[in-house]
Amino acid sequence: SQKIEQNSEALNIQEGKTATLTCNYTNYSPAYLQWYRQDPGRGPVFLLLIRENEKEKRKERLKVTFDTTLKQSLFHITASQPADSATYLCAPARGSGYSTLTFGKGTMLLVSP
Amino acid sequence: GAVVSQHPSRVICKSGTSVKIECRSLDFQATTMFWYRQFPKQSLMLMATSNEGSKATYEQGVEKDKFLINHASLTLSTLTVTSAHPEDSSFYICSARFPGQGLHEQFFGPGTRLTVL
Asked: Is the model's pLDDT at B101 over the cut of 60?
């Protein structure tokens, strides 16, 4: 069955450092993968989408990589700030086109001043 | 980006009663809306996908007679939890996808916390 793994342990880093979150998936080949941010008690907010033919995508302080051979995506936040503290969800598409998403459990990021 | 609202944000009900949750897209007409459920410290689990004017497509293991979904217009979808039981207590979140708005991006509502006593 399709499986998505994200670090279940919270990631604690200091302000100004780069946070790197990992998403591994097995038993399928998503045409694209999305990353979302979720704050406690709120719905997720879309951050970035990367397609299977793209190795890297950037948006301001965010960078996502997508290695379809390793079946892994890395999510980086550079120059992290306390306001970046949240849970980050990895969501590979189930297939191609307007596909539904499967979400990982997410990794909580805590950025301390 | 597009805004999706949900109502109510919190609801407490007695076991055996039915609860209706509304999901509205405020700025755009949504071609597709999704309903998810999230238990504490768990991932979002897709319950069903609904397209305006047609029957919802339910995920395996989700009882369609228990979780009634109505998508009567391009801006409103409702989820009714019928004969709710304590195990239905969860965080229910809807999302919408809009044509021309980042194609694959989903815009999520703020969620509804359901507690069944």
From this structure: no
> Coil, strand or helix: which one is B114?
strand
Instruction: Give strand pairing partners of B81.
Output: B19, B67
Q: Given B41, B97, B109, which is nearest A43 (Cβ)?
A: B109
Cβ separation of A46 and B111 shorter than 8 Å? no
Residue B96, pLDDT > 80, answer yes
User: Over 80: is that where the pLDDT of A111 sits?
Assistant: yes
The C-alpha atoms of residue A72 and residue A26 are separated, in whole angstroms, by 9
Q: What is the DSSP letter of A58?
A: E
Residue B82 to chain A, least CA–CA distance (Å): 23
Cβ neighbours of A46 in B, within 8 Å:
1, 102, 105-108
CA nearest to A90, candidates A13, A14, A32, A18: A32
Query: Could you read off the pLDDT of B5-58 as tens digits, one per residue?
Result: 999 999 999 999 999 999 999 888 887 899 999 998 889 999 999 887 788 999
What pLDDT is recorded for position A68?
92
- B102 backbone φψ class: left, alpha, beta (φ>0; ψ -120 to 50): left
| Bridge partners for B52 per DSSP | none
Which of A103, A107, A108 has the highest number of chain B CBs within 10 A, making it the mutation to test binding with B?
A103
Closest of B114, B103, B95 to residue B3, by C-alpha? B95
